[in-house]
Amino acid sequence: MRRRYWFLRIRRQLFGCLLLSLLILSLLLGICITYSASAGSSAAQRTTNLHRYPINCSAIYDMDPVEVGKSLWIRRQRVVEEVSDEALAELTSDCSSFLKIRGYENVCFSEEEQLFPLAYSLVVHKSAWMVERLIRALYSPTHVFCIHYDLKSPLQFISAMKGLARCLPNVFISSQLENVVYASFSRLKADLNCLSDLLRSDVQWKYVINLCGQDFPLRSNMELVSELKNLNGANMLETSRPSEAKKERFTFHHQLKDSVLQKTDQVKTEPPHGIQIFIGNAYFVLSHQLVLHMNSSEVVRDLLSWSEDTYSPDEHFWATLVRLPGVPGEVPVSQPDITDLMSRTRLVKWEYLEEYLYPPCSGQHVRSVCIFGAAELRWLLNYGHLFANKFDLSVDPVVVQCLEEKLQERQRLFESVALHLICPKTLKDQ
């Protein structure tokens, strides 16, 4: 009996020691992460003004439970907060330092990229560093970027956007800015303003892609160029027949009241020229030829004018545009629906389709849309889309950091086999 008592007592002591050791180990891991992030943060404030987390992105990609767990710990502890718009505005006040610190002067490009430049329309309103990281992930001296910021944006955000345009010679601010109201014509107009400016650019771009500030690429520059070359003049976007509920968006007149778009009882006239309306989302990949055609087509102008008093006109205008007879890269009206999953332009994870079309969100839901988390890194990179939405540095900064690292790895891999690589030493410092 005594022997059994001592055995149980020793076992309890050993278990207590083991538990204590695990607690201490967990505490030390937390302190280590906090210290590393804190040290990295102070260094970042002196150099890149960006927080870099002590995380192994290759292990995250391989779904290593320890590293994924570490990313969750970082997210929950909020080790550091997102850096301010003011910090980017201050950094871009010295363009030579900004270009060097953020690595723009070391961006190389292949002959294929040089012969196939791309254009980007960025309609943004907040989170300056997220916009900068989006541009940096896509950046090539061969491309051209138009930034449209909302006139309601905070002054420091506007200052940061102007700083980006001042420091990067192929980035500019739209010549006409809108006070963007959710679901109104102003959102569509913002992209149209950038498209008009991009047509006047000296860069002879082949395709234009529109983005928002919470988008991020899932392909490296060389991969994007290769994929868009394979389109052979076709366009890439969602275009589907509307449900009865969606038809109300363009069947009734809508009007702005107190900065809110409201539906009225007034029934609209039929679409001009007998046009059949299709629906999609606000995002597209359009050929240069189609954008040129838009400027000269009376049918397109009439469709645009008719759409001004509809709800979310950007969610039917582009989808209908590519169905118009005779447009470059036309999708015939008789062709079946092209859904958002089929078009591959933008990967969005809707809460009500999780576990049916895709795995659960590892980040956070906002209005039924998933803000991605680090545990979705592998799924994002392998699903097949060009871009994804949404990302938020205040929700999960690790997934953005790891996407940056994986895309840089892919770009370097393609550069290593490129026949001719051009590496400018510096960019023009204005």
UniProtKB/TrEMBL annotation:
Subcellular localization(s) per the UniProt record: Golgi apparatus membrane
Pfam families per the UniProt record, alphabetical: Branch
Record-level Gene Ontology MF annotations: acetylglucosaminyltransferase activity
Membrane-topology descriptor: Single-pass type II membrane protein
GO CC, one annotated term: Golgi membrane
Keywords: Glycoprotein, Glycosyltransferase, Membrane, Signal-anchor, Transferase, Transmembrane, Transmembrane helix
Family label: Belongs to the glycosyltransferase 14 family.
Protein name: Beta-1,3-galactosyl-O-glycosyl-glycoprotein beta-1,6-N-acetylglucosaminyltransferase 4-like
